[in-house]
Amino acid sequence: MTFETKKDVLDWYEAQPSSITPEFLSGIPWADVRQYSFPERLVPVLYYMRDVESLTDMYYRELRRTPTGRDPHISKFMERWGEEELVHGKLLDRFLNELGYETDAEWQDSVRASVGRFYKAHTYAITTLTNLIGKQFTGTHMMFGAINELTTGQGYRRLMAKADHPVLTPILRAILREESLHTNFYSSVARLELRDRPISRKLARFVIDHFWEPVGGSALGQSRSNYTIAQLFGDDEGRRVIDSAVTQRLRHFPGFNGLTAINKAAEKCIRAGQLSFAAAAQAAL
Ligand SMILES: [Fe+2]
Ligand SMILES: [Fe+2]
User: DSSP letter at 114?
Assistant: First the structure.
């Protein structure tokens, strides 16, 4: 699918139906959740993914202060995107509840409150800087969005395979369909921005090469992020998925040939996650 303008991308997106409809929601057999086992080691992964989903509106608020967020097509997309991500977070929260893990009614506020002051100040400063750069930064924002959606989608696929839980699987499938629409929106706008603007291309490549890390780590804590990445991608198949479904795809974007930053950042998280898991297991003996 190729698009010539951002409006074309938005028109395509708006023509796509949501997967998580009221009918879908009312058909989820919540009462069956406890009939099947769920690996305990994946519980922190569910919490992490729930929290990442619910931080979306924080990212959205920040982005609205920039030329990217003021772009009429991008902001129109982001309204629906933000709502869909919040629904994903709520579904994961409900699943945790049904499994028997208590979550507080105000969990979304607690997640937002737990994001450190340093992170908020840092993000604020970055946003202010991107305002100075102006529209040239939109390509970078869109690349970040594309990579985060792509890696999140692959993370859900891995979670679905590893948990193999009959109630969770269809929920994750529906979430995944929406994540893939998000990926396509961000990727398509990123391609247009990078194709048309040589400076944007250089800037995006530089920022991704030097600063990309799996989504949520700096807001929610590196150790939670490392644990999640190690659980989902810390085996041969996981590494293969990162390389083939993420890196190889991104290398076709304008200015992104030879990209290695994603594989390297993921590997760093996997190692740190496995080390701390081994240390915790040893301490428990
Ligand atoms: Fe999501
Ligand atoms: Fe998404």
Answer: H
